[in-house]
Amino acid sequence: xxxxxxxxxxxxxxxxxxxxxxxxxxxxxxxxxxxxxxxxxxxxxxxxxxxxxxxxxxxxxxxxxxxxxxxxxxxxxxxxxxxxxxxxxxxxxxxxxxxxxxxxxxxxxxxxxxxxxxxxxxxxxxxxxxxxxxxxxxxxxxxxxxxxxxxxxxxxxxxxxxxxxxxxxxxxxxxxxxxxxxxxxxxxxxxx
Length: 192
Known about the structure:
Elements: H1 4-19, E1 25-26, E2 29-33, E3 39-42, E4 52-53, H2 58-70, H3 99-112, H4 115-119, H5 129-143, E5 147-153, E6 165-170, E7 175-184, E8 187-191
Antiparallel strand pairs: 1-2, 2-3, 2-4, 5-6, 6-7, 7-8
Helix pairs in contact: 1-2
């Protein structure tokens, strides 16, 4: 059996990952900036530590990528970054029933550049008209950016209760945005 095409595809994937904008998290390692300016590395959401998400340095991303390739091509990075961004589920299939679906919905909606599809993943109950307009304006601005990753980080305080944070990583300009995740009527949504 010829394994050469798989090896080439594996290296091509790693090369593409290295050439992408620096990420905020790789293989479960998340970089945060504490209020005092110190860098904190953790395997949980930055908000659980009272910190803000921050990008990993390009050098660290390269080192983690190299280590992962040396330990089986996917290693610490997992399989979720391989291939094209999946298309968003059809609206008729309902809301995101788990955080994985929510993440994929956001990736697909941003890939399409459709602010209305992005808005479907947001938690709207309780917002007044003026507040909703501000959220839509913010979403419109975000929809013009290229989303690279949407990762869910469970909250230490609310593990299992549907809480946590969805971290969105944009490439141009490089930005990490952390949104709260809320479970509402059996579905998962994000909000600012």
